[in-house]
Amino acid sequence: MDEKYNMDQLLSEAVWEAETRRPQEDTLRWRQKLQELCSLKEEQERLKLRKEELKQLQTKQRAHQKKEVPFPVPQAVVVFQGQTKKEKEVSETFFSNLRIHYPLPGSSALVTFEDPKVAKGLLQHQEHNVILEECRLRVRIQPVELPALTSIKVLTWLCSYKVLIIGLPPALKLSEDQLLDKLELFFSKPSNGGGEVKMRELLPGAAVLGFTDDKVAERLANIHHFMMTLGGAEVPLRVFPYVSGDIQEMEISRCSVPHSVLVVNIPDVLDGPDLQDVLEIHFQKPTRGGGEVESLMFVAPGTQGLALFTPE
């Protein structure tokens, strides 16, 4: 506003001076000055309009970047074990087929009960006595805590030259190379919308193909549905854009296993198989705070064990 006021003031002063000066040469000089000032004002208005155009263009580009991908993207097959809430913004939690290895020290036993209340009751007292005919074995009861992934931040993007092919039958009597050869041959034909293949990879029930021309991947994803002969039968296949990703951040916390306890500091008084039988019989007895034992893994002194936990 101040800049515009100053410009108008200069114009007014220039007009007044140009009209009041009598000599012809002065009048010509001030008219030239007036023309220069008018040109500057026009240039200023033009720059303002250009600035507004650039702002509008930038806004449109940002809105375009937020649009969804113009062809279908598949959903990953996962086993959902989280909780859902009816809120506007809730982070989605899921676990796929996790396999967690848990180290077991020597002179210990991993006991898993059918009823989690049994494990919870045993954990109320860390010290525990295992009754034998001639003595008592004093042991300690500890909770089993597994490292669990609580949150993960993944940066994903579309790979322009790759596609994901799903729908491959699991019982095909073809080797990996034979199956990839057939897929490459089928999707390299222009009649099928394909092109030259530069990479290929076989996944469980799926395959990834990469093409020298990015337009081939987009074209196949747009076609989406294909019928291909495999193993003497017509097999429906679906093609999706290939999504790559990098893990940016992750958080890991300790998660207790409700059905299991870890028994440590077991004295070496019997052979391994005999001691395992004694422990299983003991923890089966409700009078000893036990219950139905689902499994018991004993680790002998001087050795180490490894338990594998998988989703139920």
From TrEMBL:
Lineage: superkingdom: Eukaryota
NID domain boundaries: 109-198, 207-295
GO molecular function (one): identical protein binding
Gene3D superfamilies: 3.30.70.330
Pfam families: NID
Keywords, alphabetical: Coiled coil
GO annotation terms (biological process): macrophage activation involved in immune response; negative regulation of cell population proliferation; negative regulation of non-canonical NF-kappaB signal transduction; positive regulation of inflammatory response; positive regulation of toll-like receptor 4 signaling pathway
InterPro entries: Nmi/IFP35_dom, Nucleotide-bd_a/b_plait_sf
Coiled coil start-end: 40-67
GO cellular component: a single term: extracellular space
Name of the protein in its database record: Interferon induced protein 35
Organism whose genome encodes this protein: Vombatus ursinus (Common wombat)
